[in-house]
Amino acid sequence: MTAVCAAVLMLSAGCSSGEGGEPSGGQGTASSAAAAPSPSATRSGASPTAPPDKGSVTVVSTLTEDLASPWGLAALPGGDLLVSSRDEGTITRVDAETGEKTLLGSVPGVAPGGEGGLMGLAVSPDYASDRMVYAYFTTASDNRIARMLYDEEKPAGQQLGAPDTVLRGIPKGTVHNGGRIAFGPDKMLYAGTGETGDTGLAQDKESLGGKILRMTPDGDPVHGNPEADSVVYSYGHRNVQGLAWDSQNRLWAAEFGQNTWDELNLIEPGGNYGWPEVEGKGGEPGFVDPVAQWSTDEASPSGIAYAEGSIWMAGLRGERLWRIPLAGTELSADPQPFLQEEHGRLRTVLSAGGDTVWLVTSETDTRGTPEAGDDKILRLEVE
Fold first, then answer.
1. Are 320 and 268 in contact (CB under 8 A)?
2. Pairing of strands 261-266, 240-245
3. Alpha-carbon gap, residue 377 to 362, rounded angstroms
4. Cα angle at 127 between 65 and 81, to 5 degrees?
5. Total-model pTM
């Protein structure tokens, strides 16, 4: 393990760019729901055999192209995909077999600007009965999470119902808006937020900025969260844009560093991940060190997914897909880069089950160099 960590530490430092790379209320009442796993449960339990030290990535096909500033990606029960446009404020359905695109509609209230706009998407765990799609987006006053009824029977462009806000008051900024949302194995809704460049927010437990949040589908604090009447699940984060669970239901998160280290963290309820006191592995009491770290020019990570025993992490400035093989709660081998500078900036990764992974490029987000066909969703086979 020491050798693996040392290898990761050897990556050269650099000034980050892309989301997180610039220098830098309203919660519901507590409700009874699934309790959060304890830190011991998070880090223990039988784990499958570690994957091979070396993996592989094959780009099987381009599912669709000509997407504008794609950001969030979520799968419907049948396998089709929903993708958000950060700057246009729209949600589009993509047929998982043909790549055909159907516009659902625009999300009212989205106010794009800088790194803000329409970002993460999630499909309700009870979608078969409630038909709800969740979105994280920037408004004129804050970042918030809302849900909308998706009516497939209505004409294209008119299929989204009015937003029902479940959580408001997440701080907004030109930078560091976070934005990833996902339903966990416990059917609770998780969100990664940023500290908007105001570093003090990350350590302020009363602020929703620089946190990972855990809430019921209605936006209420979950009974069993680290603090009663709070949706704050972990804190001390700079800008979280990647959330994924492994085969043992452990939560992993990727976040942007400032000038030195980007991080992959194993999330413990109530854990303090150090920002702005510590960037990367500081080894200081009271702070949780990352499991892996990269120089900011090698990664600038956004989305992550778990597949075939590894975390797969998209790099924006790094323009590569990282494979991070796991043995339980630790690295089983050195992280391995793929697709370096082949498809430009990479935004979102989503597991489709087995060895299939969806990958979204991010060349039209004002920081890339778009070419014909950008942006795209690629279908990958991974090992």
1. no
2. unpaired
3. 10
4. 10
5. 0.91
